[in-house]
Input
Amino acid sequence: MVNPLAGEVALVINGERHIMKLTLGALAELEAALKAQTLIELIERFEAGQISSRDVLALIVAGLRGGGWNGTAEDMIAAEIEGGPVAAAQAAGQLLARAFSLPEPSAA
Output
């Protein structure tokens, strides 16, 4: 089960459901992979729509690794993502949004 409050996002790859999460280590790997100097630069890049398929792939790989997956970007080259590139891009956006948003206060 996905826990959005913990920043988790689900994605089905090769028929298997994976839980992705951007941990601090996964974010560090993502910055390095995308040659971003800061997290703010990375977020602004996505918010401005200045993303490539390579960026989406790097974000998906970082999220998978943050969720416990031990693969690499090369493992994703022939992977079949349910919903295709659009679903991958949506999941990537959700990962960023959930990683940097505070949970809404619960009603008392």
